[in-house]
Amino acid sequence: MKLLGPEEMVLVPPRCYCIVKNPVKRDDKGDVSVDSRGQARLSYGEEEVRMAGQPFPLYPGEELIQLPTPLTIVPSQAALRLSAIRDFDDKVAGDEWLFTGPATYTPRVEVRVLGTVLATIVRPGTALRLRARQALRDAAGRERQAGEEWLMRAAGAYLPGVHEALVEVVLPMVLTPRLAIHLRARRTFVDALGRQRRAGEEWLFTSEDCETHIQDVHEEVVNASLDIVTLARNQYCTVRNPWDDEGRPQMGRLDLRRGERAFFLKPGEELVGGRILDVVVLGPDEALLLRATQPFTDAGDVARTPGDRWTVVGPCEYVPPVEVEVVKRYRAIPLDETEGIYVRNIKTGAVEMVIGRTYLLGPDEELWEKQLSPEVEDLLAMPHNDTKGVKVADMARAGGGRDKTRVVTYRTPHNSALQVYDYRQKSSRVVWGPGLVMLAPDEQFTILSLSGGKPKKQNQIHALSLSLGPDFMTDVVVVETSDHARLQIQLSYNWKFDIDSHSRNMEDAAKIFQVPDFIGDACKAIASRVRGAVAAASFDDFHKNSAEIIRVAVFGRDADGHIKDAFHFPSNKLVITNIDIQSVEPVDQRTRDALSYSVQQAIEITTKSQEASARHDAERKAQEAVGLLERQKLKDEIEAEKARRALLELQAESSAVQSMGHAKAEARARAEAAQIEMQAMLEQAKIKAQAQKISAESELEESRLRQEAELEFLKRRNELEISRARDMAQIEREKFKEQVAAIGQETIVKLAQAGPEMEAKLLAGLGLQSVLITDGKSPLNLFNTAKGLMGQALTD
């Protein structure tokens, strides 16, 4: 046996409780039930809540599982969510309910507190979104099924029921004149405005319907901030799938809307192109090309069918209807006299050239691009194209920069010709330079493919214009003499076309273009003649008479045996006027070395001969110069002796004159010095007297000016003091006047009388007729004072 204790009794304060495990059993009278051995019977596994009262002991076996705890106070707008863990009274295990405040909750062992539920404040314009955990009847008395959601819109504090779950607080969506809400119904229901909405139906809420909107549980927000579409006066838009007046969408239709106006796009409506367009403002030189996509009647009562094309010409404002497609906007093309464009009629296909005027395309017209060959494009693109043409290697292939709708122009250089061929009329024309060529739609330039290089090779130079000369060309010809010496000759030909500059006709024009490569043809003809002539001559003969042999071979001789002046080509009227042999070189290296050696030997012999001749001339000239020099020396010595004699004579005369002049100059200098000294002393005395006079006058003037300044200063200071005194007097007078006026006449009188009256009243209050106060030091006339007192008494 073990003895426990003593232990303190359990004291539960007021408004507190505790929980005891394995409590004792009690009988009907409330006494503790004991067994035969006097032991308290226990209810094992049970719990008992004991409230405030008398202290009690814990019997053996009892346990205090919860110390004394204050009772739970449930405030207003709050509740405890309770659940029954066993059956009792009218509750079944599993039941849940709310214990709402304000109240004090007394715990029971059969009830478990699941938590505290606080009331939610529903502000005006907001709502609570609730969900039913199980079938219930809400605060408005409506039956709700498990999982169903609804809104509580009533303003105030709302305490959710035990089977109600607060999903969220729904805030209002504020609507402005520029914002709307796009909604969609999840199921069929009646919205807040009392309108029935079907499942899937879409609609807008605007500020005209309400200022704020709370999203219903059956509503889905498609767009919470749908901006308003605002059209200015000069704007328009096209709406696809517009709604009619009854609120039904017209699928597939288009509606044109022009400003000034503002609207919201209804569900299903969309802007064609996704943007607002500006009204087309056409200037005087602008136009719109339009095409009808649907049959309609335009503003001018003209019936249009699909595919019709027409233009609207400015100045005007134009808004294209929904049945009209704007093909393009274009301007009138201003053209100078030297400019033009190609215009094609899309109905007939005819192409014409418009030159020298401002042109506006019609509805059935379009700009046509003239295609040129790549060679012509390159020649036109060359910045410094001339009559000599362009080498093929230097062509830039830069033909992509030309506006192909513009008339192709080419300025034919001076003293040149250009041929243009018309493929439609199968004729050609020649333009003489200087001039401007403008190609018609069916015309093309004739490209001249000329030989170039040294020696000449075909297709080396391309040109559009043909120079008429005079000009020159250079070629290298390889010839062989009769003694089989191969030589390379570089020849330069002067050439021109024999065309009369004043009477240029089509016959001459046709001839000069008959030979496509006149340079190659002429060089071949001349080279063949030169080879034939050189082949008949030996190397020595050709070396001595090369110029004559070549000129005779090319030009020939006349009847008198003279060499002709020109070589004519009748086929194209080309004339070779001169031949220049620039160089002759052997082709064989050994021949070239031998020729070079012989030339060097000849040059050396010539040089030595010239050197000997020059040396002989130099020696002869040197001997002549020495003789002339000796002769000149003798002459110079004779002249020097004569000059020395004359010098001695002059020196003697100069000494005599010098001694006499020295004495005279000395006497004259002394006299002049004395005179100058006296004059200086006289001038000095005059200057001193004048300086003293000026000094005295300046001092006198300074004294006078000082006195006048002092007098003026005293005068002005006195005037200022007088003026200041006058102003101060005036100010004092005005100040006194204003003070008197401000105080008032009656006030002044009362102030003057206030002292005597107060003294009289004071004396009357003291019961004295009169009083005299003195310090005893100042003498007083008591006779007059007493007389006055007595007189005053007699008077009273």
Summarize the structure.
The chain has 796 residues and is α+β, with helices and mostly antiparallel strands. Strands 24, 25, 27 and 28 form a 4-stranded antiparallel sheet that branches. Strands 41, 42, 44 and 47 form a 4-stranded antiparallel sheet that branches. A 4-stranded antiparallel sheet has the order 48-49-51-50.
Any overview of this molecule?
This protein is of the alpha+beta class and 796 residues long. 30% of the residues lie in helices and 31% in strands. It contains 8 helices and 51 strands. Strands 24, 25, 27 and 28 form a 4-stranded antiparallel β-sheet that branches. Strands 41, 42, 44 and 47 form a 4-stranded antiparallel β-sheet that branches. Strands 48-49-51-50 form a 4-stranded antiparallel β-sheet.
**How many helices in DSSP terms?**
8
Main sheet makeup: 4 strands, antiparallel
Radius of gyration: 69 Å
**Shape, per Cα inertia axes:** extended
What share of residues are in beta strands?
25-35%
User: For the terminal residues, how far apart are their CA atoms?
Assistant: 129 Å
pLDDT averaged over residues: 85
What's the β-strand tally?
Answer: 51
Structural class, from helix and strand content?
alpha+beta
Low-confidence stretches: 789-796
Share of helix among residues?
Answer: 25-40%
